[in-house]
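Usage example:
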Amino acid sequence: MLAMLQSVLGGGIRAGTPILYATLGEVISERAGVVNLGVEGAILVGACAGFITTAHTQSPMLGIAAAALAGGLAGLVHAFMVVTLRSNQIASGLALMFLCLGVTSFVGRPYVAVKINAVPQASVPGLSRLPLVGTLLFTHDVLVYGAYLLAPLIWLLLFHTKWGLALRAVGERPAVAYASGLPTSLIQYGAVVSGGVLSGIAGAHLSLAYARSWVEGMSNGRGFIAVALVIFATWHPLRSVVGAVVFGAVFALQLQIQARGVALSPYFLDMTPYLLTLVGLLLMGRARRHAMPEGLKAVFEGVT
Amino acid sequence: MITQTKGEAMRKTIGLWALVAALVGLPVVVADTPAHAKMDRKFKVGFVYVGPKEDYGYNYEHDRGRKLVESTFKNIEVMTAENIPETAEVERVMEQMIQRGATLLFPTSYGYLDPAFNVGKRHPDVVLMHAGGFKHSANVGTYWYYIYNPMYLSGLAAGKATKKNVIGFVAAHPIPQTLQNINALTYGARSVNPAVTTHVIYTGEWCNPGKGAEAANTLIDLGADVLSQHQDCPRPVVETAAKRGVFSVGYHSADLQQFNPKGWLTGAAWNWGKLYVQITRDVMDRKADRWVNKHTRGGIESGFVDLAPFGSAVPKDVQQMVQAKRKEIVDGKYVVFQGPLKDNKGKVLLKDGDKPTFDFIEKMNWYVEGVVGEVPR
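Running the assembly step on the lines above writes:
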């Protein structure tokens, strides 16, 4: 039982990591009042660019940097569309997603067969020898630890710095923020590009650490889960951690249930993480509707 | 996307080579058979894949076969289409290939059978050879080689290698071909080590790298120290095995060995090239009836499917034991799944010495003794 719990939680951390990066990115973006449904696409360009760079340089660290850069570029395209050109956020995000899917399938094609140096596993000295939680929490790759550290960091930035206050002000009431002298466009650009960077790193975790290979469309919907988890987490970086790990753990649990030979259809079990997301949205979404940045209402309800 | 190879440029090259050959005094062989040597137009063949050609898995192996066809025949044009879903989309792709002159098509994925049938009805002059399945017609045939034979042999090596007596199997869908592999591997392993059990996870998709990796992790957490699989992109499972230091039994391609060199035992690998050349030659010679309107099946003796090379983790005596069994199968002295055979609920499926029939194999919907759980319905 304990072993199973450890395996499920360990799986939750592994599977939750790329989702956490993407969710944190989307939290920043939406806090500044921009919804980016192109997260899925930014993950793909990150996974692809990271893989190609690693294939050529043999350095997974350079790969992660390239992934961040490529994800940031995808974010930049979205920011240009919605902040500068004022086009519809939903449409731009979806178009970006399909564009990225197409571009990465094309560009990544020759790399499907390539073998790379994966992001190394690194046990944290000392901590990894803690009873019970040691191996569970502290024997992963560096990107997993990065995600642990990033969530509180983003929380600090968003809620305890002037910079974060300005960003949230833009997300709540862009007109008021503008009137008070904040560079709203610049802030939104910054937020959306940061979101893209994090989605790119999510992709890097997928292709460089988790699956260690590149296949077209390998994000398999994780970007959309991230968008849903932002709502589940009520636009909060720390609750995003809970959301991502719970999603990852349910994902791991359904594999665990199968492996133990429980007679449930794998196709039904496949749905469980998504069902859980829906249930979570139902419960959390209603309870904390006020948590949504005011500025987003313009996106969803057509109020300008 | 359909890519064309050996088009106009090849025609020019052939001309050039003919000139060179004439100068050197060599006989010029432009085509393999007189029948189509007279033809002005090239013989056109189309291959359709469900995933990318470079997946080191199912599609990679079919495409290796395609390459042999392309290099064997001079007067040929080969079209390929990859990443084609098992939907109406594949019908459209096949129609497109036919419009461009293809008279022989290889729709290589399991779910292409009905679309292939529909296309076959509309184009009685085109030959369609589908990998696996139960339906054939005047111009549609199926071919499949029992890769579960080398899977059984790999099981012998796996049963000897495992220390925890647990094998993990990552599968895509619970279809007969997959069950054959799970069962053969387990049956083989238990024949040398009756304590072995096999745990199975279905990912529900032919290729989902993240899920494949997590399934592999889950199985290793559960105690598996040998991992095998049946899905189209096998790399993540093999790489996860390497990362966590457990053994790999390969599937689809022998070239997977490079991803877990230390833990590589052996595996089951395709060798489609010779078959595709044979079928292409027969269709060119208007002997398509050797293939259409029937199900062609075979095992290791065909040479189209075989055991992958052994890794250094397999001791010499085990290698010899596996090779000896392989020879018995090739010589017809041993048939995989021959009785006595029980399912994992204790029901006797075959009595001592009974041999499995075509339907018994092709409609497999049970787990052999030693596999944990039930086949999902």
